[in-house]
Amino acid sequence: MDAFADTPVSDLAPTLQRLRDAWQARKPDYAQRRNDLQRLRNALKRRLDEMADAIAADFGHRSKDESRIADGMTVLNDIDHLLKHLRSWMKPRRVGVGWRFLPARAQVRPVPLGVVGVIAPWNYPVNLALIPLATAIAAGNHVYLKPSEHTPRSSAFLRDLLAEVFPPQRVAVATGGADVGAAFAALPFDHLVFTGSTAVGRKVMAAAAPNLTPLTLELGGKSPAIIADDYPIEKAAARLATGKWFNCGQTCIAPDYVLVPARKRNALVQALRAEVHARFGSDFSNTNDYTRIVNDGQYARLQGYLDDAQQRGIDTITLAGSADPSQRLLPPTLLLEPGDDAKVMQEEIFGPLLPIKRYATLDEAIAYINAHDRPLALYPFSHSKATVEKILHETVAGGVSVNDTLFHFAIGNLPFGGVGASGMGAYHARAGFDAMSKQLPILWQARRTGSDLLKPPYSKAKWLLDLIVR
Q1: Residue 164, C-beta contacts closer than 8 angstroms, at least 6 positions apart
Q2: What confidence category does residue 1 fall into, taking pLDDT thresholds of 50, 70 and 90?
Q3: Which of 187, 195, 213, 273 is most deeply packed, by most CB within 10 A?
Q4: In the CATH hierarchy, which fold is given to the domain comprising 9-219+421-442?
Q5: Omega before 457 within 30 of 0, i.e. cis
Q6: Contact indicator for 156, 54 with CB cutoff of 8 Å
Q7: What is the pLDDT of residues 147-198, one digit of tens each?
Q8: pLDDT tens digits, residue range 239-251?
C-alpha cells in the first residue's frame, strides 16, 4: 500500500455518504460493536512491532518501547475498558418525572449519532487515532479517519490495519495534506473529533461551523508544573523528566514550564541533569530510548526558540550531549527565568525544552498560571493536602495529575479534555461514549393522566391547576 497516496478531495463527500447510508441501513447493535472492538484489539496486539517500526520510520528514530507504551498499551487499555462497560453504558437510564407528571415515566437512552469524523495528529499517531475511533465504534457509529500527513508510514499502517478489521462502509481513512484536512473538516459529520494545536483547532471549528457540526477539540497550550516547598526536589525531577522527555517532549500534556520555590531552583537543575544522565547517558547518539524531532520544520521551530532565548540573554542549559540537526537530535535543555516576551513562553513548546521560573510565594505562582490561558494539564507537587486543594481551587485546567505527570490521560475512568484555549469537550471511556451518542430523552405517557384535563376551558380543571402550581 502506497503510504504517500493522497485521497482526492472529490472522494471525501461520496465516502461520507457511503458510510452514512450503510449506518442508516443497519445501525450497529451490541453484538456488532463488541465484535468490532475485539477484532480491532486483536489486530493491533498482533501488529504492535509493525506499528512501532512505522512510527520509528516517521520520526527518523523513536523509542520502540515508548511506542509500545504510548500507542499500544493506551489503546489496548481503552478498548478493554470499553468492552467491560459497553453493555451497561448502552442501557437506557430511567429518570424520575416528579409527582406533577405521574403516572408517566421517563428515560434517557444513548443512541448513536451516525458518522463520526476523527482528525488525528502526528505525535502519537496511532493512540490519538484509534482511541476516539474505538470510542465512536462503541457508541454505535461509523467512522471516517483523517490521520496526519506528517507521519505517512503510520497513516499507511492505520489504513491497512483498519481495512483488515472493518468493511469499507463502516470505517474509512482519508490521507493527504492540508487541502484534504481542510475539506475533511468541512464535511457535515454527525460529530467531529480533532486533536492538534490551538491554532489549527480554530480553523477546524470555523470549517465545521456552517454545518453546525458538534465538536470535541483536544488542543494544547502551556501545561505548568508547580513544585511546592515541601515536596522533595529529586522525586519531582524524576517525574518531571518522565513527563517532559517521553517522546522528546512531543506530547500535548507534557510539562511546558516549571514553577519552583526560588531557593530550590538550582537544586532542581542539578536533579534534572542527574535524571537525564541516568536515563540517556551523556551521548544521545548511542541510545535507543531518546526520540528524535519528527521533521525538519519542527526542529527549526524549536531551534528558533533557543536562538530567540540566547538573543535575549536567557540562561540556557543543555543537560547532556549536543544538538545534531542531521539526526534531528535536540537534547533536553533548560531555560532559566524566561520572560513572557520570549518565544518559548508564548506558544506550546512541543519539544525537549523546559523553562524553569522561580516564585517567592504560592499565591504568586498561582497568579502566574491564572494570568495565562487555561492549560490542558496541571501538575501540582506537594504532600500537603491543603496546598494541593488550594491550587486546585484557585486554578482551572483540563486535567490534573497530582505528584506526577501525564498519567491521568491513561486512566480509563477519567475523561480527557481541555478548557478554553486548550480544548472543548472530553472523551475517553464513558465521557467519550456519551459525547459520541445522543442522550435521547424519552417520556412515556400513561393511558390515563391528569394532563388530559389541562385544556380550555381551564375553569373545569381549576382544582388541578391549583394543585400543580402550589
Answers
A1: 43
A2: very low
A3: 195
A4: Aldehyde Dehydrogenase; Chain A, domain 1 (3.40.605)
A5: yes
A6: yes
A7: 999 999 999 999 999 999 999 999 999 999 999 999 999 999 999 999 999 9
A8: 999 999 999 999 9
Give the pLDDT band of residue 4 (cuts 50, 70, 90).
low
According to DSSP, the β-strands at 215-218 and 191-195 are parallel
Provide the percentage of residues in the chain whose pLDDT is more than 90.
90
Region label for 451, one of left (φ > 0), alpha (ψ between -120 and 50) or beta (otherwise): alpha
Q: Residue 231: which of 441, 413, 380, 426 has the closest Cα? A: 380
Place of cell 483540563: 398
Q: Where in the chain is the domain with CATH 3.40.605.10?
A: 9-219+421-442
Q: Where in the chain is the domain with CATH 3.40.309.10?
A: 224-417
What is the rounded distance in angstroms from the CA atom of residue 432 to the CA atom of residue 436? 6
The tens digit of pLDDT for each residue in 276-335 reads: 999 998 887 678 899 999 999 999 999 999 999 999 999 999 999 899 999 999 999 999
Contact 278, 431 (CB under 8 A): no
Cell 400513561: give the residue: 446
Domain 224-417 has CATH 3.30.300.20: no
Catalytic residues: 218, 252
Q: What is the pTM of this model?
A: 0.93
Q: Which three cell numbers stand for residue 163?
A: 481495512
Handedness of CA 45, 54, 295, 187 (dihedral sign): negative
Amino acid at 452: D
**Please, are residues 302 and 335 in contact by the beta-carbon 8 Å criterion?**
no
End-to-end CA, the chain: 71
Q: What DSSP assignment string belongs to 100-112?
A: GGTT-EEEEEEEE
Instruction: Please spell the DSSP secondary structure of 366-407, one letter per residue.
Output: HHHHHTSPPPS-BEEE-S-HHHHHHHHHH---S-B-TTSSSG
| Percent of the chain surpassing pLDDT 70 | 99
**Residue 224: its H or E element:** strand 224-227
Bin 44: left if φ > 0, else alpha if -120 < ψ < 50, else beta: alpha
DSSP-derived 3-state class of residue 418: coil
Give the residue from 152, 170, 197, 191 showing the smallest Cα distance to 1. 152
- Helix 127-138 / helix 74-90 crossing angle, nearest 10 deg: 10
3-state class (DSSP) for residue 142: strand
